[in-house]
TrEMBL record:
It comes from sediment metagenome. InterPro entries: Bact_response_regulator, CheY-like_superfamily, Sig_transdc_resp-reg_receiver. This is Chemotaxis protein. One of its GO terms (biological process) is phosphorelay signal transduction system. The keyword Cell membrane does not apply. SMART domains: REC. Keywords: Phosphoprotein. Residues 11-128 form the Response regulatory domain. The gene is cheY. PANTHER family: RESPONSE REGULATORY DOMAIN-CONTAINING PROTEIN, STRESS RESPONSE REGULATOR PROTEIN 1.
Length: 131
């Protein structure tokens, strides 16, 4: 995503209980032109969501106070009518059923940890192609 107009960059919500993984996500998103907003818990993500809007959500599958698939479903319920925010789940789990559960809950894509900036850029590009 490139910044072509003046003003703040589009905001991206990064949800991960690992400080290192949050920093990696924030770094990658800044390089892609986003302004990241970080949360480390399910509850923190819901509070951050209320400050929206967000152009993208990047969330961990397992959080200390809930699961990423439940968070994706809750964020979908809270979305304004007609506005669908792209959501990508990031996880260390390679289990196909975990991936499917996240996608059924409202996520638009699934990325493996460790997150790489290149993989994130590719996933975001794929989201744009599906619009």
């Amino acid at each position: 995503m490139s910044q072509t107009q003046a003003g703040p960059p589009p905001r991206a919500l990064v949800v991960d209980d690992s400080a290192v993984e949050r920093m990696v996500g924030e770094f990658a998103l800044r390089r892609l032109g986003y302004g990241p907003v970080a949360a480390e818990t399910f509850a923190g993500a819901l509070r951050a969501w209320e400050s929206g809007p967000f152009a993208l959500v990047l969330l961990d599958m397992h959080l200390p106070d809930g699961e990423g698939w439940d968070l994706a479903a809750e964020l979908r319920r809270r979305e304004a009518a007609g506005r669908r925010t792209p959501m990508l789940v990031v996880s260390g789990s390679a289990e196909p059923e975990d991936r499917e559960r996240c996608l059924r809950s409202g996520a638009d894509g699934f990325l493996a940890k460790p997150l790489s900036p290149a993989a994130l850029a590719e996933a975001i590009a794929r989201l744009g192609e599906s619009d």
